[in-house]
Amino acid sequence: MSTLQLHSSPTSSSSFAPITTSRFFQTSRVSLRNAVVTLQSDISSVIGEREADRQRVCRQRKRDSELRRGIERSDW
Fold first, then answer.
1. This protein's superkingdom (predicted)?
2. Quick check: pTM over 0.70?
């Protein structure tokens, strides 16, 4: 198994503990998966809010239309 050696600077002799590449990529993959899940959740939330707004507007238009029809009938 190969390892990734992390140094504070190229000329420094002190270094962090080596991280295996498989562990490094596994951690990166988990972070990426969490970011994707968060993004999907945000998108779903926005879509849900837009759908709720659309339904609210439809209900308001229907009420306005019914109100106008009622006013027109009372004018007869």
1. Eukaryota
2. no
